[in-house]
User: Fold this.
Amino acid sequence: MNSADPKHDDEAALIEFLSSLMDYTPTIPDELAEHYLGKSGFQCPDIRVTRLVALATQKFIAEIANDALQLCKARQSAVVKDKRDKLQKDKRLILTNDDLSKALREYGVNMKRQEYFAESPSTGMESAARDD
Assistant:
């Protein structure tokens, strides 16, 4: 066979990459990745597979965070243009749920806000009085 065989080069690169996963510690701990993989019905004794999934998840989260950051910067620069009269002294970026929601939507993930139910203070007081 030819030494410049692309199949052989791809296989060698894959073997090298998989062996490098043994020395790599992803941001997402192995135990957490194993937990969620197990909840989905996936079980594999090879830690390299777990770390590969954790690495892919880390990349996915980083892309979403970066997209949300870009949306935040665009939103805040639009606000500054609208309010040219005021000098903006505070250059902090404030990431909102709307920024995150828009970024997630680009990846096909719909984020819905949790509905909040609050009892009136008098209702809470009545149930507390009954417990006494």
Observations:
- The mean pLDDT is 82.
- Residues 13-79+94-107 form one domain.
